[in-house]
Amino acid sequence: MDTTADTEKGITELQKENQQLTEQVRRLVAAENELYRIQSKLDLKLRLYRQLYEVSKQFNATFDLDEVLQIVIQFVLYELNFERCLVLLPTLEGKAFQVQALDGYYTDGEQEALSKFQLSATEPTLLPLITKAERIICPANSDQQALRELGHRFHMDEYAILSLGGKGEEPIGLLIAGNSAEMAGNQERVEAEGEAIISLANLANQATTIMKNLRFYQASKRFVPEEFLEFFQKGSIVDIALGDHLSKEMTIMFTDIRSFASISEKMTYQQVFDFVNSYYEQVSPIIRTFKGFIVKYMGDGIMAVFPNRADDALQAAITKQRCVAEYNEHRLKKGDPPIQIGVGLHTGHMMVGVVGEVDRMQGDAISDHVNLASRLEGLTKFYDASIVISSATHQRLLDPSNYKIRYLDKVCVKGKEEVIQLYEVFDGDPPELQMLKLETQADLAKAQELYYEKKFVDAQVELFKVLGRNPTDKVAWHFLVQAAQCLKGGVPETWSGETVMITK
User: Fold this and answer.
1) Nearest alpha-carbon partner for 154 in 170, 138, 166
2) pLDDT tens track of the chain, all 504 residues?
3) Which of 104, 262, 368, 479 pairs with 93 at a CA distance of 20 to 30 A?
């Protein structure tokens, strides 16, 4: 028997089998590695989707744009592992994008430069992104010189730019994430089809949605003020319903521009709107500063309520008068005539609520007290007073001596039988006029007392003293004329001295 040949044959077969087994093991290892790779990829996707879900919950918990941008940047840096991140928003003119938020490994000099950085909306390299909402990807080995130069402007050697905005829409912002060459080896690399870029796109979509919602929310606040929602303890404009109301004692303010018709008749329609809006821009924030809210604008007038203290309303009225004085300096420099405003304040129980119909609602204040406050504003012209308050408001002041106040008159306004005691607050008058009113206040008060006691001749003596110091005092002139008429025609025994208004 040829045992040697059989042995060799056996060894060959064993070697062949061993090679087959080795190949099978190699394939199994390769398959296991592929499965591990796929599993790792799926785990990464799952982790990123879970994190994006958590981000969506953070987005829904805030109404603050700066917080939203910080959530975006933190996700880019700490979950996607890019080194640097920028969010650019349009400038007011809309002609460029400027840095609104940034974070990452920047030097102080780089941060300072980026704080002033702007990217033109007509930048050629941005065209695909702006017109088609496509991503702009510039990996480290990009051969597109224009993209590389663009990256150097915001200090990134590899980066991705994504539009915050839908397809066919103008971007409401730009999201930029990437790395510098020095740190790229330790960070997530910028690859067109990488999981990080896909997650970045998902993040941009979420951010776009929440930013659009915030824009709508901010716009809605201009029509339904936040103070109005707080007043009704509503969390959002969508919670406001027709018929919602609250009744309590409040101070209501009416403000009006004097001689508006004669001022506006010299203007074009556009100039009228520009003028009124410019004026509102000056005085409206004052109402919010003193814890009031604007119920509505009425042409050149404002109706506002102050739910807490009468002092809030009065301090707002005084501040508005001072603000208008400064505004007039600006108008005079432009060659425009100065304006005057009258403010009427009254305190009483009133109802603030939502009126209208299902498809068109607005806030309003309803009460006889509202109508009276409007009448008081009208009386500022009659008495040439900048601020007129009712006795109800005067009584609710914490300390009337903190203000420059003088008694005006007792009046029966048109449409009312009740006699109202009126006061003038002149803290907002020019300093020289304040001084004259303070110097003559005692004489005017004595004249008014004598007038109501039917001592008309004695009242006139005191009134001439007032007019000798302040010839333009319309209140003194009013009482002087009234005293003369009473002397001439006499007064009935039941006469109590109130001024009856026959016009509004």
Assistant:
1) 138
2) 456 777 777 778 888 888 888 888 888 888 777 776 666 666 656 776 687 788 888 888 888 889 999 999 999 999 888 999 999 999 888 889 999 999 999 999 999 999 888 988 888 888 877 766 678 899 988 889 999 999 999 999 999 999 887 666 778 899 999 999 888 788 888 887 778 888 888 888 899 888 888 887 777 666 666 666 676 666 666 666 666 667 789 999 999 999 888 888 888 889 899 999 999 999 999 999 999 988 888 888 999 999 999 999 999 999 999 999 999 999 999 888 899 999 999 999 887 777 777 667 666 777 778 888 999 999 999 999 999 999 999 999 999 999 999 999 999 887 777 899 999 999 999 999 999 999 999 999 999 999 999 999 999 999 999 999 999 999 999 999 999 999 998 999 889 888 888 776
3) 104
Contact (CB, 8 A) for 321 and 341: yes
* Host H or E run for residue 439: helix 431-452
> How many residues does the structure list for the chain?
504
Per-residue H/E/C for 109-122: HHHHHHHCCEEECC
Query: Could you tell me the two tokens for 426?
Result: 């002149």
Cα-Cα-Cα-Cα dihedral of 150, 151, 152, 156, to 10°? 170
Query: Tokens 């007509």 appear where?
Result: 122
The DSSP secondary-structure symbol of 338 reads P
Residues 79, 75: Cα–Cα separation, whole Å: 5
Query: Among 300, 262, 296, which residue's Cα sits nearest to residue 279?
Result: 300
Separation between Cα atoms, residue 171 and residue 164, nearest integer Å: 5
**Are the C-beta atoms of residues 195 and 184 closer than 8 Å to each other?**
no
Number of other residues whose CB lies within 10 A of the CB of residue 458: 16
Specify whether the backbone of 415 is left (phi greater than 0), alpha (psi in -120 to 50) or beta.
left
Distances (CA, A) of 39 to 44, 50, 80, 103, 192: 8, 16, 18, 32, 21
Q: Which long-range contacts (CB under 8 A, 24 or more apart) does 210-216 make?
A: 210/59, 210/60, 210/68, 211/65, 211/68, 211/164, 211/172, 211/173, 212/172, 214/63, 214/65, 214/68, 215/172
User: Which amino acid belongs to residue 366?
Assistant: I
Q: How far apart are CA 220 and CA 234, in angstroms?
A: 14
Other beta carbons within 10 angstroms of residue 235's beta carbon come to: 9
Q: Which two tokens stand for residue 355?
A: 């009126």
- 145, 306, 307, 394 from 311: Cα distances, Å: 65, 9, 11, 9
What kind and span of H or E run contains 97? strand 96-104
301 vs 280: CA distance, rounded Å:
9
